[in-house]
Amino acid sequence: MGTNYLRCNAGRTAAAAAVLLLAGVMVLVTPLSAGAANHKGIAVGSEAVVSGTWKATAATTSMTFTTNTFQTSMITNTGTIALSAISYKVTISNPASGTPTFKVFACAVAWVSNLCSGGAGTQAGATLAKNTTTTVSSTVVPAVAGNVYLQIEPASVTSSVTVTLGTSIAAPAQLRAAVKTNQ
Predict the structure, then answer these.
(1) Together in a domain, 17 and 102
(2) Alpha-carbon distance 120 to 47, whole Å?
(3) Which of 12, 45, 53, 121 could be 79's S-S partner, Cβ–Cβ 3.0 to 4.6 Å?
(4) Do both 112 and 67 map to the same domain?
(5) How does 21-52 read in b/e, with b if 16+ C-beta sit within 10 Å?
(6) Counted domains in the chain
(7) CB 83 within 8 Å of CB 176
(8) Are 74 and 111 contained in the same domain?
(9) Separation CA 107–CA 117 (nearest Å)
(10) What three-state secondary structure class fits 36?
C-alpha cells in the first residue's frame, strides 16, 4: 500500500463524513408538517375545557313545613363537568303567623335519622328568615352523575310555610379544573 492511497482514502472519508454530518443537521432543522407527525403531542401552557355541560337538579324543589320536622332533597350532577362548588337559591314564603327560620345543610351521603354519616353535615350559608330569597353556596358537591343530599332544618314553625329550592352553578368559578394525566 502506498502513501498516495492512504491520503486519497482519508480525503474521501473526511468528505463523506462532512456530507453525512450536513445531511443530519438538515434533517434536524427541517420542520415536519403537522399532518406528517405520527406522535402524541404534549401541550404546554394553560388548558381549557372545550366542551361540556354543568347542571345539577334537585329531586324535591318545594317543601311545605307545618312543624319543625327536617326535610331532605337529593341533588344530582346531571352535567358532564365536575364541580368545585354549587349554589342553591332558597325561597321561603311568608307564613300567616310566626317568624320561622331555616338552615340548609349538605351531606355527601344520604341523611339517616337527621344525621350526616354520624355528624351534622355542612351548613350552606347562614340562617334564613321568612319571606326571603337567598342564594347559599356549598363545597359539598356531587360528582358527575353523583348525588349530594340537602337537609332543610326549620325552627319556630307555627303555621304553614313553603321552602323552594333551585340549583345554580357559576362558571367558571364553581367548575373543577381538569386533571391532567400523561398518557
Answers:
(1) no
(2) 38
(3) 53
(4) yes
(5) eeeeeeeeeeeeeeeeeeeeeeeeeeeeeeee
(6) 2
(7) yes
(8) yes
(9) 8
(10) coil
Q: Is residue 177 part of a domain?
A: no
Query: How much is the pTM?
Result: 0.69
> Is the per-residue pLDDT at 175 higher than 90?
no
- Asked if residue 40 is part of any domain, the answer here is no
Instruction: Give a yes or no: residue 113 inside a domain.
Output: yes
Domain that holds residue 124: 56-168
Which pairs from 108-115 meet CB under 8 Å and 24+ separation? 108/140, 108/148, 108/149, 109/149, 110/72, 110/74, 110/149, 111/70, 111/72, 111/149, 111/151, 114/70, 114/151
Distance of CA 149 to the CA centre of its chain: 18
- How do residues 145-162 score in pLDDT, each as one tens digit? 999 999 999 999 999 999
Q: 74: part of which helix (H) or strand (E)? A: strand 71-77
